[in-house]
Write a structure and sequence with these properties.
Chain A contains 13 helices and no strands. By secondary structure, chain A is mostly helical. Classes of the chains: A mainly alpha, B alpha/beta.
Amino acid sequence: MRRAFDIALAAAAGLALAFLLLPLLALFVRISPDELLAALASDAALDALWVSLKTGLVAHVFVLGVGTPAAYFLATKRFRGRGALITLVELPLVLPPAVAGIALLALFSRRGLLGAELDALGVQLPLTQAAVVIAVAFVAAPFYVRQAVASFETVDPTLIDASRTLGASPARTFWRVALPLSATGLGAGSALAWARGTGEFGATIMFAGSLQGVTQTLPLAIYAQLDIDPDVAVAIGALLVLVSLTVLLSLKLLPSWTRFTSASLIRSAPSGSS
Amino acid sequence: MRLLAGLLAAALAAASCGDGDGSAGSFEGLTVFAAASLTEVFRQLAPSATFNFAGSDELATQIREGAPADVYAAASPRYPDELFAEGLIDEPRVFATNRLVLIVPADNPAGIDSLDDLAADEVKLVVGAEGVPVGDYARAALEAMDRADVLENVVSNEEDVKGVVGKVATGAADAGFVYATDASAAGDDVRAIEVPQDARTVVRYPIAVAVEAENEPQARAFVELVLGEEGQAALAEAGFGRP
């Protein structure tokens, strides 16, 4: 009886693995490595790679630059409505991407909430490369901010107090104590946000459109190439599988790495001697 | 990819549950792959059928991959002819025509009144992608008028005609080329501007039963409905032309 149960469990595990991995494997089986490389060298794939890297990088700088202090604020300040605010920040995490797309249009399009003001400034965002950056940042930021708030919250308050007692300014305490101690979590959040941003499709196609070399990111290129040159679509898909795998592996390796570096940083941090 | 087709079949079957029967009789279980521009009129003709509306080119790709289509209706003879030659569908029959128009948002922020205005700087034009019939017709029309230069103002290549309508209706784009029927279906959100017609841009809609149709009698009945009096009346009311 127990044996039968074990077999059933193993069968379920095998089924789950096959279900999750076979489709990805099929991508690599469908075309030969030579064809895959040739397809990746096509204009459509290279243009999409460039658009994805460029918009992803700009969005990521924005997410880290604004998200880190915002998360530190949310994690360390105590005020009414803080919990509600954190929940709202997390909302885009569970929001369908198409909703993000229509919401961004509702705000930024010429008929949108800010449309008249932006128009007066001569700024038109929809269907531009800036729109890709906004869409990517919108869907990716919560992944980072959520993780960053959690990481800052786990920093031992006595270390913060010690730093302040020893005469370090709040800013110096943030840079030399809170930030290094949270590095693991921030790195993980950053990687997750990057992965989500790279995969962004729904909000981008609605808000930024699809134009090769301008707004057509890698996921959009898969969609556009499917009926033009399926090999290119498959090749981009295979590339994104490898990118995702890299992100995942670095997440797994990250904790052991940062535990070492952050520990060594803290040893010198509160003394302010360096 | 066969697996993909199977999953698609399962998803479509699940999506078809719960539709009510239409006046045209029951098409429960029938799966129709149709050009996006046929969305409103086909839904009205056979509410109980399962529809997969998308760009004609995308639908052709899905059929080649083994997706379970009973009927294929496209916005251009190109893909039906290809699929017929490949032995995947019966001989296509043209059931309707359409024409290309230019649409602008109701408030027409870029002040576009004619094709010439499209060439102005900073006009945001949206068209169908290459290979998508509505995009190919738009390019052919512009070439016929010797105005291919306005294509420099294209800011997005959409995968089907409804994508173009959406971008213009929300005001994200200043103008887009769509079919006359989509312009009227979009109602007050857009304004249509006539485009000089050219032999190359007469839009023909062929329809055919898939060779491997699982619901062949229903598929034939649907094609007859579309080609028959009731179908033609509904198409005419939606603004389509006679074949």
